[in-house]
Specification:
extended, mainly alpha, 138 residues, 62% helix
């Protein structure tokens, strides 16, 4: 059970951990080039593992995917609006279940994180998704 919890936690948090490590490496290397951060990984990670990650990030396939993601996030800012900050959907779901002492659906979590305190949706896109995908009447 502990291994399952660990794996789920790392699945949620590891991308953010790597992003922060990469940002620290850029500062340490005093550079904005990914190639320059080799050897500047976190102390808890072996140098060859870090350098392998850097090689992965330098790969054109990863670069293209990263650029495409950046363009998508920039082109559709309404699609990324939510109201729970950096809390993951999984963590928000766990907190809501603990508070309500029952299982909650993905719909309930989605609905919560895309509404302002006033009860209105953060964007028309969020409202449309609730209505069309979840067949929910608002």
């Amino acid at each position: 059970m502990a291994r399952t919890v660990w794996n789920k936690t790392m699945h949620d948090r590891y991308p953010n951990i790597l992003k922060r490590a990469r940002d620290r490496a850029f500062k340490e290397a005093n550079s904005t080039s990914i190639a320059d951060i080799k050897g500047h990984g976190p102390k808890a990670m072996k140098v060859d593992v870090w350098n392998g990650l850097v090689d992965h990030w330098l790969d054109s396939k990863w670069q293209n995917k990263s650029v495409a993601g950046q363009k998508n996030r920039t082109a559709m800012p309404a699609h990324k609006l939510h109201t729970v900050g950096s809390i993951s959907f999984g963590e928000h779901k766990r907190r809501k279940e603990a508070k309500l002492k029952r299982r909650v659906s993905f719909l309930e979590v989605y609905d919560d994180v895309h509404k302002k305190k006033s009860g209105e949706y953060v964007s028309e896109v969020s409202k449309e998704i609730i209505v069309s995908v979840f067949n929910f009447v608002v």
